[in-house]
Amino acid sequence: MSLLLSEQGDARLALDPESGRNRYGCLPFPGPRRPAFGSATASTISPQAFEALKALHQRVGLAPGWVQAAECDRVRAEIATLCGADSVPGSEVVLAPSGTDVHLLAAQLCASDDPQGRRRPLEVVLSPTEETGNGVPAALRGLHYNDATPFQGPAPALGPLDGCRAASLRVLAGRRPDGRARPIAEVDAEARVLVEGALSSGADVLLVVSDLSKTGLVFPSPGLAADMVRRHGGSLTVLIDACQLRLGPAAVRGYLEAGCAVGVTGSKFATGPAFSGALLVPPALAGAWRERDLAPSLSAYSARADWPKGWRPRGSLTYTVNTGLLFRWQAALTEMRAFRLLDPAAVAGFFSAFAVAVGGRLAQDPAFGTLDLPAPPARPGGGDGWDQVPTLLPFVLKRGGSPLPLDPARALYKAIREGLGEIGQPVAVGGGGGSQPLGAFRMCSSMRLAVEALGPGGRGGDAVIAEALAFLGSIAALAGRAA
After folding, report:
1. Bridge pairing between strands 204-211 and 153-154
2. What is the rounded distance in angstroms from the CA atom of residue 106 to the CA atom of residue 93?
3. How far apart are the first and last CA of the chain?
4. How many CB atoms lie within 10 A of CB 240?
5. Residue 356: which H helix or E strand, with range?
6. Helix, strand, coil percentages in the chain from 3-state DSSP, rounded to 5
C-alpha cells in the first residue's frame, strides 16, 4: 500500500533502491522518529496518517473505479471545508498532482478567444524560480516540466504539450540582488506596470501572487491583487500561490471573495506526502472555467475525477482516477483535521514562541546568518492570527565567517537530511552583479508540530522548541566538521 504514495506523480517520487527514499529524502511509510522541520520542502508520512491510508485502502483497494472517483469527490469537499472555500458559495475545487500542476491547469483555464474566434496570447507575471517551484515557469508556458508524467510515463522535458497555449513570462522579483527583501510598495508599483503593459497589448494576463514564497515573502501585495481584479477582471486572472498553505481559512475565503483563484498543497505546511495539489476556484471564475475545453495532451497530468462533476474539461481527459493523488491527499487531510481542532490562539502562541526561539538562535549564533522577513501585507479576509506569525524561517550557514554559496549548501543539505533530520532544502538567494547565489535553508514549523505541541497527549511546545534548537546545534556542528 505504501507504494501508492510514490505513484502517479513524477520522477521525484521514485524510490531509491538502496535507501528506499524518494528524491526529497522521504520514506513512503513512517520511519524512525527524527527531527522534522523541513515542511517547506517535504515530509515523511506520520503514523496517524498512515493508519488513515490503511482504512482508505480497505474501502477502495479492490473496488471499481467509480468508488475511487466518489472518494475524490469527498476529498475535494473536505479540502474546501478545511481551507475555507466552502464558506464562499459557488467555489469549486480541482485536484492536481502537485503545486506545479496547479499552475499548469490555471494557465490553460485562462484561455479565451478574441471576437474573431482566435485564441488570445497569454502573458504571465510571476515570481522568479528561486521563490517558486523549479518547474513552474515551464508549466505556465504549456511545456512538460519534468521528464516523467503521472499517467503517460517519460516525457521530453521542456517539450510542448500539444494543443496547450504557450505563455510569455514576465518575472517580478521579491528580493534585491543582494538578497534583501524589496519594499512591498516598490514591488506593487512594478507589478502594476507589468500587468497593465501586458493588458495593453491585447493579451490575457495571469498574475501569480506568492503567499508565501520559498523564502517566506508575500508579494505582490494581496491588496494590489484584489484591486487589479476589480479593475481588469475580464482579461486578468489572479492566482494566489498558497502552495505552502501557511494561511488560514479566513485568508483563503477573502481571496476567493475577491475573485482570486488559490493554489494549495497538502505536502508542505500540512506535512502530507509530497505531490498533492488543489486549485480553489472562486465563483467569479468557475462559471467560465467549467465550460473550457482542455487539450487532450493534459491527460498526461490530469484525471477526470480530479474535476467537479459537470465541468467540461472532464471530457477531454483519458484517465478516470489518480489513485496515488487520492491517497496522498487522504494523508494530508488527516493532518489538517487534527490541526483545525486546535485553539487558534494557542496555535498563534506556539508559533510565536517557536519563531522567537529559533529566530533568536539563528541571529545570535555565528554559524548562521538570517534573511530579512517582513511582516506579511494585509490579506483581503484578514487572518486567523497564527498565519500572521512566521512559520518558515530562512537562514544561511556560514563557513569561515562567510555564508555558503548554493552548491556547497546543497551538499551540506544532503548530509543533514541523511544523518540528522528534515529541513527545508536550500534555495538560491542573491547572486546579482555576477556574484554566486547563496543557499538559504528553511527552518519550519508545521501543522503536525503544532498538534504534537498542543494536541491531546502532545509533548508540549517547550519540548518541540527544545528539539528545534538542538537540531540547529547539530547542523552547526556538522557544518563546522565539513569546513
Report:
1. unpaired
2. 12
3. 42
4. 28
5. helix 344-364
6. 45, 15, 40
H or E element that contains 341 = none
**Residue 11 CB contacts under 8 Å (≥ 6 apart), including other chains:** 23, 146, 147, 148
Question: 344-482 maps to which CATH number?
Answer: 3.90.1150
Instruction: Say whether pLDDT at 432 is over 70.
Output: no
Nearest in space to 221 (alpha carbons), one of 248, 182, 279: 182
- Section 200-217 average pLDDT: 95
Given this model, what pLDDT does residue 382 score? 79
**Phi then psi for 228, rounded to 5 degrees?**
-65, -35
Is 65-332 a CATH 3.80.10.10 domain? no
pLDDT at residue 468 is higher than 70 = yes
Q: Are 286 and 92 in contact (CB under 8 A)?
A: yes
Question: CB–CB of 211/218 below 8 Å?
Answer: yes
Domain definitions of the chain by residue range: 65-332, 344-482
Instruction: Report the candidate in 270, 276, 240 with the shortest Cα–Cα distance to residue 391.
Output: 270
CA–CA distance, 90 with 429 (Å, rounded to integer): 40
Which amino acid, one-letter code, is at 274?
A
The residue type found at 8 is Q
Q: Do domains 65-332 and 344-482 have the same CATH topology?
A: no
Binning pLDDT at 50, 70 and 90, where does residue 434 land? Answer: low
> If we measure between CA atoms, which residue out of 58, 65, 35, 57 comes closest to residue 303?
65
Element (H, E) at 222: helix 222-232
Mean pLDDT confidence for 350-354: 98
Q: Are 328 and 276 in contact (CB under 8 A)?
A: yes
pLDDT above 90 for 87: yes
pTM (two decimals): 0.96
Task: Report residue 114 as a C-alpha cell.
Answer: 478574441
Plot region of 90 (φ>0 → left; ψ -120 to 50 → alpha; else → beta): left
Q: Is the peptide bond before 374 cis (omega within 30 degrees of 0)?
A: no
- Tell me what the mean pLDDT of segment 444-469 comes to: 97
DSSP state of 422: E
Asked if pLDDT for residue 13 goes beyond 90, the answer is: no
Residue with C-alpha cell 535507501?
Answer: 19
- Residues with Cβ within 8 Å of 437's Cβ and at least 6 positions away in sequence, in order, are 130, 405, 406, 428, 429, 430, 431
Q: How confident is the model at residue 482 (pLDDT cuts 50, 70, 90)?
A: low
Element (H, E) at 261: strand 261-265
Burial degree of 378 (CB within 10 A; 0-12, 13-18, 19+): middle
Average pLDDT over residues 50-74: 90
Q: What's the mean pLDDT in 447-475?
A: 97
The helix/strand/coil state of 351 is helix
Q: What is the mean pLDDT of residues 111-132?
A: 84
Residue 370, H or E segment: strand 368-370
